[in-house]
From TrEMBL:
Keywords: Transferase. This is Amidinotransferase. GO terms for molecular function: transferase activity. SUPFAM superfamilies: Pentein (SSF55909). It comes from the Bacteria.
Length: 322
């Protein structure tokens, strides 16, 4: 859905050119995460094998569409035998950062800890300039969790980590990450319809280069809400408030990427259908919208942003641009 008034943008540190995606073979709704993930479907009519095949096909299609837009997708297959039902969401267990830095995170659910794959870290070292890998996973032994760019929505331009307090975002782990990676933490409380903390910040908020969209009204404290809005606005971004209903449709779970012809916003078809024409117009001032159909994967409580781990690293050999 290209916008006729879209302004071409130069390279932005906010929008990665490459991502990691995991194609699952044993996808299912994770029972260990149901307690605090209100976005997860409680009733599933499809057979497990049918769901797994559908999820596999959805990731395959995501790879094809994003590649067609000039985004490099490092696609890995999950060959585990049902032990990692949420493996399709790799952005929770690792992140990458300019300057050659990689972080590996402590995960709240025991079966999600099995998702960490050192072959992916080794691929990053081979293909990109990696200076160090900081492994926080040992914090699990102390009951301290920080689920990557699910728990944190990072403003790479203004160096701010926006974090909704939850089981998945411990303040001690957050402080350690922000100290190591030079981010300012801005933590806040946001509640779902049942009055429970939003489990991951990235279902609530998306920060692009020239815009930020978020369910600001879900932030409990009005003063903190105003501070977040002011900080994002002061960074020069257009603000797109999302309603509670739009957040529940995964409208906040989107990721800005750099394609071969400029910035794109990857989000699900379900999320796009919930946006108003005015909200779409604001996005299209700076980015083309690329809808991706992932209805099976969304049953597990995450959407497109959760599926893509952005690579903010310099390549060892520059990839030719179309």
């Amino acid at each position: 859905m290209p916008g006729s008034d879209r302004v071409a943008q130069p390279y932005s540190p906010q929008a990665p050119r490459s991502v990691v995606a995991i194609r699952p073979r044993a996808f299912s709704v994770n029972q260990q995460t149901a307690a605090d993930n209100a976005f997860q479907s409680a009733r599933i009519d499809a057979e497990p094998g049918e769901m797994a095949r559908a999820a596999y096909a959805e990731v395959t299609r995501v790879h094809e569409v994003l590649t067609g837009h000039g985004v490099e997708v490092h696609l890995f297959d999950d060959l585990s035998t049902g032990l990692t039902p949420d493996s399709v969401f790799p952005n929770n267990w690792f992140s990458t950062h300019a300057g050659g830095h990689v972080a590996v995170y402590p995960m709240w659910s025991p079966n999600r800890r099995l998702e960490r794959r050192w072959d992916i870290i080794e691929m990053l070292k081979r293909e990109y300039r990696v200076q160090d890998v900081i492994d926080y996973s040992g914090l699990e032994q102390d009951g301290l969790f920080l689920e990557g760019t699910g728990a944190m929505v990072l403003d790479h331009l203004d160096r701010v980590a926006y974090v909704c307090r939850s089981n998945r975002a411990d303040p001690v782990a957050l402080e350690r990450f922000c100290t190591h990676f030079n981010f300012e933490p801005i933590a806040f409380d946001a509640l779902d319809d049942a009055g429970r903390p939003i489990y991951h910040t990235n279902v609530l908020m998306c920060i692009g280069t020239r815009f930020a969209m978020a369910g600001f009204d879900l932030v409990v404290d009005e003063v903190r809400r105003a501070e977040i809005e002011d900080r994002l606005s002061d960074s020069g971004r257009d603000l797109i408030p999302l309603t509670r209903e739009q957040v529940s449709e995964f409208a906040g779970n989107a990721l800005e990427l750099e394609g071969s012809h400029g910035l794109i916003l990857a989000l699900s078809t379900r999320a796009l259908a919930s946006l108003t024409s005015r909200q779409v117009a604001v996005i299209e001032r700076s980015a083309s919208i690329v809808p991706l159909d992932v209805p099976t994967i969304e049953l597990a409580g995450g959407s497109v942003r959760c599926m893509l781990a952005g690579i903010h690293l310099g390549r060892r050999t520059a990839r030719p641009r179309d």
